[in-house]
Design goal:
Layout: H1 10-20, H2 25-28, H3 50-61, E1 71-72, H4 85-91, H5 109-126, E2 130-131, H6 140-153, E3 157-161, H7 166-179, E4 182-186, H8 195-201, E5 205-212, H9 222-231, E6 235-240, E7 258-262, E8 278-282, E9 293-299, E10 305-312, H10 332-367, E11 371-372, E12 381-385, H11 390-398, E13 402-403, E14 406-407, E15 418-422, H12 429-441
Parallel strand pairs: 1-13, 3-4, 3-5, 5-6, 6-7
Antiparallel strand pairs: 2-8, 7-8, 9-10, 11-12, 12-15, 14-15
Helix pairs in contact: 4-10, 5-10, 6-7, 8-9, 10-12
Length: 444
């Protein structure tokens, strides 16, 4: 076995083997079948100096194309929003960069208060009563919501709209066998979900999940979908874009019991797909079934306000059969970035941001030389039907320095000629004009 990258000496290994009570490495691994062993050294490159490693990493990084080099209209779940300087100024402070889990409240008041404030903001945004301390991303919190609903209802079926992000649906399907869940997908009609179809699929279901705005950027008839879920006795779960909630109704106000979503757009960079954070909030009667951890507010013996970890419904803390999560942590730093960003934006700024995205999307519909794929109203993404395969258009447009969007045919058969275009406040009217020129040039 290769040992050149380890600091241990042969003498160190001998001492450890003696302490364990075996004579050799082979004896230590005697229970591992021979066919599973690698009887050769690892195929690693020779050692390199720090300077050589730096050069190689710089060369590799130079191959990445970022939004500073390429005009990008790519969205599909991760968005290029403006990141104010205050976010990184706060999250880079050393007291927030610790990896320490805040079990001991007397040592962790700053982190605990930040989590508590984050939970408060998420509840205010979603119209819910309780929030956990965040999840890994918008896909894993969807899987958590499924198990949470199954715990609450005793049912084993989940109805999920086809207009929910394909990545979210795939993660839910991956988790489902371990939870003993059956997943039923509801096909879209004209880019949105039919409440009657959701009602039929939700019979005997624990939860009905839909996305608002959905993956196509279209606005779903959310109140009708929530009513359909309730009529079937299922919990209504809305997967929402947090930055849409300045102009769209909060899911807790139209009958949903659980609100989930991807928090990246709030204060986190694209980061080539992560790390980001997922949020999960619910009505108070579901608090003991929520995954992860929840920070609460209390007072000490001197009647001073303080914060503690109130609920931890994971296997490490309670009996396994009652656990609703095996999550061992949360995305505290990314969630803190979301808190700072939303606090900086404020209610008025959040509304203005939403209105800007709406306005840019409407401008794009007028300026771009292609037709909309769906008639439903949209938020900050629009699905455009091209005159040729969207994958080809993307390849040719990128040669001209523009990433025009996401080809929906990657995930939806029959939509191979449909391009999903994201319009955030970082895109200007001049950028839309440039996109129009490029689409015309490549024959879209």
């Amino acid at each position: 076995m290769g040992t050149g990258y380890l600091a241990l000496t042969d003498a160190d290994r001998e001492l450890m083997l003696q302490a364990i009570g075996v004579a050799s490495i082979d004896e230590l691994f005697a229970d591992i079948p021979e066919q599973a062993r690698l009887r050769r050294g690892l195929e690693l490159p020779p050692p390199a100096s720090e300077l050589e490693v730096e050069r190689e990493l710089v060369e590799l990084a130079s191959r990445n194309v970022h939004t500073g080099r390429e005009l990008s209209f790519l969205g599909a779940g991760v968005y290029d929003h403006y990141l104010p300087a205050i976010v990184e100024a706060i999250v880079s402070r050393p007291e927030f960069l610790t990896a320490y889990t805040p079990y001991q409240p007397e040592l962790s008041q700053g982190i605990l208060q930040a989590i508590f404030e984050y939970q408060t903001v998420i509840c205010e945004l979603t119209g819910m009563e309780v929030s956990n301390a965040s999840g890994y991303d918008g896909a894993t919190v969807a899987a958590d919501a499924c198990f949470m609903a199954a715990h609450a209802t005793g049912r084993k079926k989940i109805a999920i709209a086809e207009t929910v992000s394909p990545q979210v649906r795939q993660v839910v399907k991956t988790y489902a066998p371990g939870f003993g869940l059956e997943i039923v997908e509801v096909a879209h009609s004209g880019g949105v979900t039919d409440p009657e179809a959701l009602l039929a699929a939700s019979q005997d279901a624990a939860a009905a999940i839909f996305q608002q705005p959905n993956f196509f950027g279209c606005l779903e008839p959310s109140p009708d979908l929530a009513r359909a879920a309730a009529e079937a006795g299922a919990l209504a779960v809305a997967h929402v874009d947090p930055l849409s909630l300045g102009v769209l109704e909060a899911p807790g106000n139209y009958g949903c019991q659980i609100a989930i979503g991807e928090g990246q757009a709030a204060g986190n960079r694209l980061s080539f797909g992560g790390p980001h954070f997922g949020f999960l909030a619910a009505k108070k009667d579901l608090i003991r079934r929520m995954p992860g951890r929840i920070t609460g507010q209390t007072v000490d013996r001197s009647d001073r306000r303080g914060f503690v970890l109130t609920f931890q419904t994971r296997e490490q803390h309670i009996r396994r059969e009652k656990a609703t999560s095996n999550i061992t942590t949360n995305q505290s730093l990314c969630a803190l970035a979301g808190l700072v960003y939303l606090s900086w934006l404020g209610p008025r700024g959040l509304r203005e941001l939403g209105e800007t995205c709406l306005g840019l999307a409407e401008l794009a519909k007028q300026k771009l030389p292609v037709q909309e794929a769906f008639a439903a109203p949209s938020f900050k993404e629009i699905a455009l039907r091209l005159g040729r395969p969207a994958e080809e258009v993307v390849r040719e447009a990128k040669k001209l320095g523009v990433n025009p969007g996401y080809p929906l045919g990657r995930d939806y058969p029959g939509l191979e000629d449909v391009l999903l275009v994201a319009l955030t406040e970082r895109r200007s009217p001049a950028d839309i004009e440039r996109l129009a020129e490029v689409l015309a040039e490549v024959g879209a």
